[in-house]
Automatic annotation (TrEMBL):
<comment type="subunit">
    <text>Homotrimer.</text>
</comment>
<dbReference type="InterPro" id="IPR011268">
    <property type="entry name" value="Purine_phosphorylase"/>
</dbReference>
<dbReference type="InterPro" id="IPR035994">
    <property type="entry name" value="Nucleoside_phosphorylase_sf"/>
</dbReference>
<comment type="pathway">
    <text>Purine metabolism; purine nucleoside salvage.</text>
</comment>
<keyword id="KW-0328">Glycosyltransferase</keyword>
<dbReference type="GO" id="GO:0009116">
    <property type="term" value="P:nucleoside metabolic process"/>
</dbReference>
<keyword id="KW-0808">Transferase</keyword>
<protein>
    <recommendedName>
        <fullName>Purine nucleoside phosphorylase</fullName>
        <ecNumber>2.4.2.1</ecNumber>
    </recommendedName>
</protein>
<dbReference type="InterPro" id="IPR011270">
    <property type="entry name" value="Pur_Nuc_Pase_Ino/Guo-sp"/>
</dbReference>
<dbReference type="Pfam" id="PF01048">
    <property type="entry name" value="PNP_UDP_1"/>
</dbReference>
<comment type="similarity">
    <text>Belongs to the PNP/MTAP phosphorylase family.</text>
</comment>
<dbReference type="GO" id="GO:0005737">
    <property type="term" value="C:cytoplasm"/>
</dbReference>
<dbReference type="InterPro" id="IPR018099">
    <property type="entry name" value="Purine_phosphorylase-2_CS"/>
</dbReference>
<dbReference type="GO" id="GO:0004731">
    <property type="term" value="F:purine-nucleoside phosphorylase activity"/>
</dbReference>
<feature type="domain" description="Nucleoside phosphorylase">
    <location>
        <begin position="26"/>
        <end position="271"/>
    </location>
</feature>
<keyword id="KW-0597">Phosphoprotein</keyword>
<comment type="function">
    <text>The purine nucleoside phosphorylases catalyze the phosphorolytic breakdown of the N-glycosidic bond in the beta-(deoxy)ribonucleoside molecules, with the formation of the corresponding free purine bases and pentose-1-phosphate.</text>
</comment>
Length: 273
């Protein structure tokens, strides 16, 4: 057993002591989006600091606990708070929880994030389904010797985000009069927000929104054979020429306002699993 596999097993066995159910889905909640955990019934909370080999989130808006319970009657495991490369973690540490959730039994991963908009059609508070991504982060989570038991050396990335789940989400949104965008997410290192020139560059190369997370987790999920659905809350618009000073507090506020719509869509998608 490799060191990584041993760490995954230790974390899984610790969590399983508190909850023997096999979850069908994992959920990763982004900045300001942690209230979705209130939708989880009969929940058990485990602090990240108590789980063997788990990192600890250091960012405001990320509470740092694993939630196990039921959404729409389906067993799920949710991360209230994620990890970022800019916090000083390696990409293997950032994505370690995805490996653990896979070991617990999930087959589908739901991801949310707060993102800066680069598409002129976007406004603050809009929701964007991520249909594809561009990886501009400086370290790859699969760098190093491949663990064949976890996935292939060269995983296919032609459909990192499930088309079937995207279709289902669009129908849910239409049925509930929720307007959704669909676009390409650009993953960057952070922790600085982007310059005007960087926003312009990333829009030119095909990006609609930009953020400091999600891409590493999706890569590892694809490596593990998981289906992925991801959604961005557009919390600021960086493509405009006028004065646009962005603060983390504004990001959290915009995310909180859009959260009920995101929660409805996640709830309904999980109900349909």
């Amino acid at each position: 057993m490799s060191e990584l596999t041993a760490k995954i097993t230790a974390a899984k066995e610790y969590i399983s002591k508190f909850w023997e159910e096999e979850p069908v889905a994992g959920i990763i909640l982004g900045s300001g989006l942690g209230n979705l955990i209130q939708e989880i019934a009969r929940s058990i909370e485990i602090k990240y600091s108590d789980i063997p080999h788990f990192p600890e989130s250091t960012v405001e808006g990320h509470s740092g606990k694993l939630i196990l319970g039921y959404m729409q009657g389906k067993p799920v495991v949710a991360m209230a708070g994620r990890f970022h490369f800019y916090e000083g973690f390696s990409m293997k540490e950032v994505t370690f929880p995805v490996r653990v959730m896979k070991a617990l039994g999930i087959h589908t991963l739901f991801i949310s994030n707060a993102a800066g908009g680069m598409n002129p059609a976007f406004k603050v508070g809009d929701l964007m389904i991520i249909r594809d991504h561009i990886n501009l982060q400086p370290e790859h989570p699969l760098r190093g010797k491949n663990e064949d038991t976890l996935g292939p050396r060269f995983p296919d990335m032609s459909e990192p985000y499930s088309k079937a789940l995207i279709t289902a989400a669009n129908k849910i949104a239409a049925d509930n009069n929720i307007y959704l965008h669909s676009g390409v997410y650009v993953g960057v290192q952070g922790p600085t927000f982007e310059t005007r020139a960087e926003y312009k560059y990333m829009h030119i190369i095909g990006g609609d929104a930009v953020g400091m997370s999600t891409v590493p987790e999706v890569i590892v999920a694809a490596h593990a054979g998981l289906k992925v659905f991801a959604m961005s809350v557009i919390t600021d618009i960086g493509i405009r020429e006028e004065e646009n000073v962005i603060t983390h507090e504004e990001v959290l506020a915009a995310a909180k306002e859009a959260e009920p719509k995101l929660t409805l869509i996640f709830n309904e998608l999980i109900r349909q699993l």
